[in-house]
Amino acid sequence: MTTHTFTAIIHKEKDIYVAECPEVGTVSQGYSIEEAVSNLKEATELYLEEFPLPEITKPLMTTFEARLNV
Q1: How do strand 9-13 and strand 26-30 relate by DSSP bridges?
Q2: CA 23/CA 34 separation, integer angstroms
Q3: At 49, which helix (H) or strand (E)?
Q4: Residues 9-24 pLDDT 10s
Q5: What domains are defined for the chain?
Q6: Residue 23 DSSP symbol
Q7: pLDDT at position 39, please?
Q8: What is each CA distance from 57 to 11, 29, 43, 47, in whole angstroms?
Q9: Nearest CA to 20 among 32, 12, 29?
Q10: Are 36 and 20 in contact (CB under 8 A)?
């Protein structure tokens, strides 16, 4: 058994946090950030048991600015 480090992207929707793993495509949620990440970890592990990934690469993440007409 090996351990890999994955990315968790988290955003809040009303009263719940949604966590997504871009390397695998798994998504989960929780009422706290910790719960959302814990649920994402479990979902990702279960997914990878059934559908192993041959090679995992880190996504490139950056930010950008956009003008809004408010």
Answers
A1: unpaired
A2: 20
A3: helix 33-50
A4: 999 999 999 999 998 9
A5: 1-70 (3.30.160.250)
A6: T
A7: 98
A8: 22, 24, 19, 17
A9: 29
A10: no
Tell me the two tokens of residue 61: 């993440």
- Whether 18 and 10 have beta carbons less than 8 Å apart is answered as yes
Q: Using CA atoms, how far apart are residues 12 and 32, in angstroms rounded to an integer?
A: 9
Residues 6+ apart with CB under 8 A from 70: none
The Cα-based distances of 3 to 31, 39, 54, 61, 68 in angstroms read 26, 17, 14, 22, 42
Q: How far apart are CA 32 and CA 29, in angstroms?
A: 8
Q: 16-21 and 26-30 as β-strands: parallel, antiparallel, unpaired?
A: antiparallel
pTM, two decimal places: 0.82
Which carries the bigger pLDDT value, residue 57 or residue 46? 46
